[in-house]
C-alpha cells in the first residue's frame, strides 16, 4: 500500500513540475512526433522568431542540436524541404514530409532564416529505417570560434554596373578555444542564391593563432559575372559552419541599357543600309528625282560655235541690206492678170 501511495505522489509531483522551456529571447522548434518513416509527415511548430520572417525547414543527417548541422545543407534532404513565413508574433506551423537525408543519422529538423539576420534552431528527429552512425570526432587541439558578427567590406564600381563580377571582403574575428596553436588555417567560403545549397571554395589565411588568442580574418568573396539578387555568404571551418552573412547584390542596369540601345540602333542602321541598297538597284521611275537628274544631265546642251550671220555683206546695216529693203513695204500681188479674168472697167 505504501508503495502505491509513494508512486502516486511521484506521478503527481512530475505533473506539477513544469517542463524546461526554451529562453523567450531565442527561437525554438517543436515536433509533433520524434520519429516517422519515409512517406509520412511531421508537424513543425516554432515560436520566438522574427515577425514576418521567411524560414526554411529541412531534415538533416549527421547532426545534433549541440553541434548543429555539421556538413551544412549538403547533409539535408533539400528537395523535400518546406518554406514558411512567421506571423506577426513570430510563430509558425508547417507540415513537413519525411525524407531520408543523404547522410546517416542522428538527424534533426533544422529550421533557419532565409533572408535577414541569421537565426536557426534544431530539434532531434529520427527517420525510421534510415542508417545510424556515430558522429565524426571533433578535431583535437586547436578549435576556432567566431567571436563577433561577420561583415562584407567593399562596394560595387562602374564595371560591376555593366556586368563585372561583384566582389567583397568577408571580415570576421575568430578565437582559438583549443589547447594548441593553429597555423595557416584553411577556411571554406560558400555562396548560395535563395534556397539553393552553397558552392564552396577554399581560402587559406596566412598566420598563426595561439590558444586563447584572437585574430581578424579577411577573405575575398566573388560572385559570377552578372549576378544579382539576394545571396548568402557562409563560412565553414573543420566541417562546421561558423557564420553566414546575407548579401543583397544590385542588378547590373548598365547591361540592360546596353541591350536597349542595341535593339534601337542596330535595326535603324540595317534599315538605312537596306534603303540605300534598294535605291541603287531599282530602275529609275519617270518623274522621280533620280530620273530628273539623269534627264537634266542627258539634255544639257553642249557648247558650239556661234551661228553665222544671215547677211553676206557685213558692211551693210540691216536697214540698208538690199535683200531685205523691199520687204519692209506692205504686201501686194505682183503676178500678171489672168486671161480668163475680165478686167474691171470703171465708169467712163
Secondary-structure map with pairings?
Blueprint: H1 2-16, E1 28-31, E2 35-37, E3 41-47, E4 54-60, E5 63-64, E6 68-69, E7 82-85, E8 92-97, E9 107-113, E10 120-128, E11 144-146, E12 151-153, H2 158-161, E13 167-176, E14 182-183, E15 186-193, E16 199-204, E17 208-209, E18 214-222, E19 229-237, E20 240-249, H3 253-281, H4 289-298, H5 322-325
What descriptors fit this protein?
348 residues; alpha+beta; 4-stranded antiparallel beta sheet; 5 helices; extended; disordered N terminus
Uncertain residue segments: 1-24
Strand order of the largest sheet: 2-10-9-4-7
Count of individual helical segments: 5
Largest sheet: 5 strands, mixed
Rounded to an integer in angstroms, the radius of gyration calculated over CA atoms is 51 Å
Order of helices and strands: HEEEEEEEEEEEEHEEEEEEEEHHH
Determine the fraction of residues in helical runs and give it as a percent range.
10-25%
Mean pLDDT value:
78
Category from helices, strands and their pairing: alpha+beta
